[in-house]
Amino acid sequence: MQTKDIQSDKGIGFAVLFSVLTILAAAWMVAAGDQLTTALSFAVAIIAACLAVVGAQAFW
Question: Where is the chain membrane-spanning (predicted)?
Fold first, then answer.
């Protein structure tokens, strides 16, 4: 009897999605003019980077 391994690409998808979001937020952080927008962009970039790593580890 063979067992069937089902592999998913969710880990790659999460990593790519949140990596792109991280890059966009980091770019917005550099381009933003005021301090509040820079801080919010930095927070979004850090959270998205964490989610990229967690998503890749959880679904790989």
Answer: 12-33, 39-59
E-strand stretches of the chain: none
Nearest to 21 by CA among 38, 40, 46, 39: 46
With a CB cutoff of 8 Å and minimum separation 6, the contacts of 48 are 18, 19, 21, 22, 25
pLDDT per residue rounded down to tens, the chain (60 residues): 666 666 778 888 889 999 999 999 999 999 988 999 999 999 999 999 999 999 888 887
